## 1
Amino acid sequence: MDRSKDNANPTILNASDLPSRRRELSAKKRDDGGTGLFDGLVPAYNYLNDPFDGPLSSSDSDDDSFEDIDEQEIYDLIAPISDPEHPLSLAELAVVNLPDIHVEPPTSPQSSISTVVVEITPTITHCSLATVIGLGVRVRLEQALPPRFRVDVRVKKGAHNTDDAVNKQLRDKERVAAALENGTLMGVIRKMLSTCE
Amino acid sequence: MSSLQIQPLATLSPPSNSRCWQSVPHPSQPLIATACSDKTVRVFSLTSFTLLHSISGGHKRSVRSVSWKPHTKGQSVLATGSFDASAGIWRRVERGPEEDFTRHGRDDDEEEDDEDYQFSCILDGHEHEIKSIVWSPSGQYLATCSRDKSVWIWEELEDDNFETVAVLQEHDQDVKCVAWHPEEDLLASASYDDTIRLYREDQDDWVQVCCINGHSETVWCIEFEGSGMGEKDFRAQKGELSEEQIQHIELLERSGPRLASCSDDSTVRIWRRQPKEGADHANGHAGVPSIIRSFSVDEEWVEDAVLPQRHDRVIYSISWSRKSGLLASTGSDGKIVIYKERWKEQISNGVTAAGVDKVVNGIEAPSRHRMTEWVVAAELYSAHDVFEVNHAVWAKRCDKGRRSDDEEIIVSTGDDGEVKAWTVEEVKPQAGG
């Protein structure tokens, strides 16, 4: 690949400085996006968030979907996603940050739908890969969280030149669905997610 | 206030195990076709709520939208639009008289017929995903729209011979939905660019005749009101009407069927065409020789109403009943909401009671008083458990339990892969309650 990187020298956070907490529970994957195929690509440096990879008891399926999932758990799910152009995780690049993650409860007592809002901070303002990173975060959370969560991924205000356009795309379910049927793009996403779990 | 209740009737079986996008009832038969992300279309019976046919092997990606050709004799013709950028035409010979499908006690007969839908032809031209496909009410035209920002109009010259009659590239972005006027060759399209555009033929060319700016986010779905609804909706109610109300009914008659739209801005809006000066209406028609009038195809559509906001996330679909004028909406929050239009309460001097808020410091709001209001008649949470609902449509009730020839059900389609039928019942006021 000839493409030069948008940001050749990003700021990198030390792994030990990243917010973490032993996860007491971990949301299951609803759908294995075939990440196993990419095991060979998992960079050796990344053991950041891999507390226990044994399968969780299959009992915690739909019945206990009202378990609380907090910001740290959301962070743990997306922190190990690999940057599409650097051999680093989104957490290490500070693309995803704990204070920019919010879990919002249902808006009505009759509703059981919670919303997860993740604001991402692309490494530099003209990062052309912001959409791909956002898509990776959205796919990761949609696969890992119970279906009662709606996932809203946005570019943090002012962090990106075309954030409105990127946000609108990431918000559009139909375009996200179509993008995931695009083999090339899905290959990039799978590679990014191959460092999760 | 709620006056209707949405009750579960059936989950069509078997469900798909992946997202379904849209379900469209057949214009005359008790059938409904569902567009699925597993690249298939499923055709279910609305008498038994079971799967009759699965149409596969045609599209390489999700089927996003389907449309039955109206007025076909002896066969069913289904058009499919896919994320693979192509549209398909499928045919199936229908045995037996179409008329008697509503008869009781024979709902097994037609399901024994295992003859499948035959692939008939493919319509290529779009560069990206097709988002919506719909036949015109006459069956003469087929409209498609795509992420490639274009709207195409196809004309079927003879069976399987389609000609492109127009490629309309007015939108700046992804086009989400196309809809035909029920009486005129007037096409509307809704887009990711937040606008709705209308087109008609002018001297052999299809041109844009109106651009509606009103929504602040992607417009996901549009649908015209049915034809002749003045006989069926609030306007048909007996009782004394005021002079203003009579004028309002006449205005609606001159405007013709209205247009409804729903958006990522969480609103449903109704648009009405301004009758043209000199156009056919009761008085003053004879005076102006048409040759002098500088005729323009441009149309002006104005906002007629903003419906009560009951969705807190994107609204994906609306459906306007052809029988009752009730409007149903559904979306990401998993709710189905039914709205009803009614006269606003009048006070003695002809000013609408609820319209008082329009008068600020003695200055009337620029628009005329709203004569009618839309109220929420029913609201259902979690129609598809916690999943998003992509589509909800009114359909004629055909199963054995139906209570009248006119009874309608709502059919919803969700991310859980399920297609569900719902009855809509009047809530009887409880005695002493």
## 2
Amino acid sequence: MQAQHEETALIQVRNMKKYYQAKKGLNKLKGGNTYVKAVDGVSFDLRKGETYALVGESGCGKSTTGRTLLRLHDATEGEAIYNGKDLFKLSNKEMNKVRKDMQMVFQDPYSSLNPRKRIGNILEEPLNIHNIGNKSERTDIVMEVMSKVGLQVDHYYRYPHEFSGGQRQRIGLARALVVDPKVIICDEPVSALDVSIQSQVINLLQNLQRDLGLTYLFISHDISVVRHISDRIGVMYLGNLVEEGYTDDVIENPKHPYTKALLSSVPLPDPNVQRERVMLQGDIPSPLNPPSGCVFHTRCPFAMDVCKTTVPQSLNLAGNHTVRCHLHDEEIATDEKKVVNA
Amino acid sequence: MTTELLNVEQLRTHFYTEKGTVTAVDDVSFTIHEGEIVGLVGESGCGKSVTSQSIMRLYDEYMVEYEGKIEFNGDNLLNYPIKKMQKIRGDAISMIFQDPLSSLNPVFTIGKQIAEPLMLHHKKSKKEAYERAVELLALTGIPSPEKRVHEYPHQLSGGMRQRAMIAVTLACEPKLLIADEPTTALDVTIQAQILNLMRDLNKKLQMGIIFITHDLGVVAELCDRVMVMYLGQIVEEADVKTLFEQPLHPYTRGLIKSIPQMTGERKSELSVIKGNVPSLTNKPKGCRFSTRCEFADEKCIEEMPPLKTHSDTKKVRCWHYEEIIAREEGGHVHASST
């Protein structure tokens, strides 16, 4: 059932950084500005027709990455090449045109729909903005999309409060689909839903991808959902992409100690499984003052001296599997082993 | 595991609302034993939180009416006057809430909040209470507790706050701990830490725990016994292994089947439970699950099934569960996963 997709990159993200300036007042006293490094040099390709998942815990920068890509926030540095153009350098007008191809589905289906508008108006708004069709054509498009996501015709005149969470998420998805986009950035689209509804929306996302040839950037903290839906996974920690690879490789053969810990922390719905758990000590450090060297070294059970000082580079392992960890750098790792043995 | 700690019998909780009386918990009966961790699972609005808050009688009594019995130490808590109930809360029964930031008081230090129940219930002096607070913080795994005891909730991270919250609830060594989604707001790596802590504390202190969650993974990891709720009723009760190996109720079966797995086939069509949970003001007449159950027939729509005892450890509320299982599995033995 593996989706067939070409290995050509639709969007190439290179060294994307997003820093937020911390509150100014106190920084004057401390001297100089401080920044929250929400995303700190992330590079990945979004391939045509695939589902690329960004996973990580809260505060790791996965949502910021998605939003920055759509320029809901402006990037501090880096580039994102789409159709030969750098999205971060486009004027607002040009960017608005690109947004026809790139749409977003948000996490909270309660706050992302305007409570004072009817569903029909909510769904027609993107068409108005992008000047697509005349009034009756717009209604036709909306009706068609509504049936695609499993809404009924009479829902057109209803208000958001009349719908349950799962149906609202269908509306959010329909709003993204009306302009016939190529890429949809799904920011935790099923996290707010109950288990029995979650599977309905996951199935819908998969069917739409198959029928319409969509590309998803799927942002989620739920590893079992990500495992189910994605082709490739990027694992983020404190603004850095620490591991990337095909879903099966990352899940079955994780390389980075953080990925290992994350995977072993997922509670499995099977009481017979006894797992060896990589327990992490402590909490995620503040992105205001991230640790030197490898950002994970403060919690890493295998941290070496080199991790405290040197930032690990992205290492290519077999099968398009990349990892940012000194443990997989043969030179450093063997040096360390010598030290340990001596 | 033998001494009965809490016995809830035919509990009904009615709320008076503008739209009339809403029965959020409808005929719920169960027993909790000493040292046992019992999971209460269900989706939002199924009444799992209302059940737990009814045990503590946390609702304003002018807007709610309880029916049935909640026996704790042989007394019916529902007959207690308010003053007597206050002596139970935070002492013999205490509760952890989902969001540690909003359930800790932001204007008092952590130490003050742990010391308060000790000074109130156990008449400890301020000094003794603070010493105990430091011990409790250490017990819940907070580093440098003698420093943390003087800090305010906003100075702690999410995981630390939940540890502090647990320290508050453990202060008086409760016999029964009610944990209402204590790890839902936390990240998985922190969740794993907190679940480990709760398991250790349960062994050390031999208290009974009611663990409320919507996450079946957490249930499988932590609980000894599970009760599944749907629309205000318990639809299935079993020990944790049999619940996952041989679920009986169509709702439980659907729920377990619909979660994406960490092994096996990916990208496949997930099985779904069709439709939505009906609202509490518009409950189906017969079986509560009949509107979403693919096996529902006339009888299910008309008559409410009782919670039937299937075996010593298993109870189920369904008219046809035996036929359904036989039909779905074609008689072959249910493969236990490795």
